[in-house]
Here is the input.
Amino acid sequence: MKVAVIGGGAAGFFSSLSIKAHFPDSEVSIFEKSSKVLAKVKISGGGRCNVTHACFDNNLLSRHYPRGGRFLQKLFYQFDAKSTVDWFKHRDILLKTYPDGCMFPQSNNSQTIIDAFVHEAIQKNVHILTNSPVREIEKINERFRLKVNDELLEFDRVVITTGGQPKKGGLSWLEDLGLDIVDPVPSLFTFNMPNESVTSLMGNVVNDVTVRIEGEKLLGKGPLLITHWGMSGPAILELSAWGARMLHEKNYQFHILVNWLNEMKEIELTEVFEVIKIKHSNKKIANINPFPITNKIWCYLIEKSGIQPDAKWSEFSGKLKNKLINNLLNDRYTVSGKTTFKEEFVTAGGVALHEINPQTMESKKIKGLFFAGEILDIDGVTGGFNFQAAWTTAFVAGKHINGH
Ligand SMILES: Cc1cc2nc3c(=O)[nH]c(=O)nc-3n(C[C@H](O)[C@H](O)[C@H](O)COP(=O)(O)OP(=O)(O)OC[C@H]3O[C@@H](n4cnc5c(N)ncnc54)[C@H](O)[C@@H]3O)c2cc1C
Here is the structure.
């Protein structure tokens, strides 16, 4: 069985190794268009490679994918986060779990992962061909003919692992095969707020906030970081992922409502204020910050509410109180544009999942053609979930490459 794997990234290498593990006699060639393989793995997770997430309940794991979660859930029984940990352990690569659940190699260096893949691929006789873009693919009877540079080559099976494509044009060669493509849009980005003075608080972090898109049901939860261009941090990235398509349609012009106190409600907040008013009536409002937000943010919100810097708690009532409550629980900001998150960004959209057999990763229309990785309409939130999707889909494609 001659197999071509198109794309020398995470999914390309993992599917090749899976093919060799399940069918040692097969002949596997990886075609990579650039001069280097695994380039994204190298820069992933800030150079440390967030390999997976310590989430070992597959139902829960699947909920971290704004697109493709249900599809993945059907695959996880074949290869899940625990399988990833074991796969690397078997190769003496231990993963370290951080408090937020992200798992990195103990070396804290993505090169460890690259070395393991390349070493095993060479050892198992996988041909790695760089500077080899596949420009065309054609099915002739039971075989595939690929145009690589100017050469025509034939294979029995093909795995496409060419990664996320920012523009639909990049996927036209797959549309030409009759496959349905979901328009690609970016996911995992931070929000630009060019006209908001909150950016003067850059570097301030609040650990538990909730952020909503005004007029929508979407919610992001977790830490929020104020940057010099706007807002970032897990709460914002989560919103950008779940809202990727909708925010694209809004041309990245929208309003957000920040609850700086997580999910605290007005009634609870009023009670907190009543207690402070009694206890600290003679003290300045600015000097008593009863909340888990930084003093800078507290003073900023006081000023934003029109409260004088030397106002005392005894004077705290009426309109000013209502304004501060509103700014703590429903603080409104104008977002205008987005900025790529350098640690991890992905493409939503790609090959539509209804085209793919969820047990084997084979195309339903074109027998012998398989897909894995970000080329599919699957993407996760930040935290190792995108690589996990690549490992899972690639492993399954490799395991079923002979069509069973
Ligand atoms: C900066 C950054 C950091 C990230 N960090 C993390 C992280 O820490 N954890 C995580 O889970 N996810 C992370 N991600 C996401 C993750 O890297 C991707 O989801 C993952 O790499 C997808 O793997 P893939 O093999 O499908 O695609 P890719 O890794 O993009 O590989 C596709 C390969 O195919 C090649 N190719 C494309 N077209 C052709 C063609 N026609 N012929 C031949 N070759 C072709 C490309 O050159 C590329 O090498 C990060 C992404 C970025 C951009």
